[in-house]
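Researcher: I'd like a structural prediction for the single chain below. Treat it as a standalone chain; there are no partners to consider.
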Amino acid sequence: VGLLQVGIIMTGLAISASTVPVHVWLLVPVVLLVDVMFAGFAIATAGVTTSPEHAQFTTLPLFFVAVGVSFWVTLTGTQDLGLVKQALPLGAIPELMTIVWYGGDLSTVPLLLLPTVAWTVVALFAAKVMFRWEPRS
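Model: Treating it as a single chain, here is the predicted structure.
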């Protein structure tokens, strides 16, 4: 679903901008990695959520941090506090998306993916520790 949504958005952007992404192939690993990260955090928060209705409240802090960091990096760039911004959840994604769309030095891609990989590992570890199966009645 995430790849489909990104595909629709990128198609709309390509039509409106009359250009196409230079490295569109890079979208697949980036989107899948972010999806796995958020799935891991979702599973982790399910372990502390008392009901489906409360799930929106337990996931909200991480959502606000991730989206806030992404907007912060997009609006201010990484000239100041670059390593800090890139180390936060979704902090490196705006730079990766710039490389996807406009091209750029592909040798920086592994360094930009590294923080997201680390957050994905944290998310999966948190899911393993926090999630518990309980019998349903």
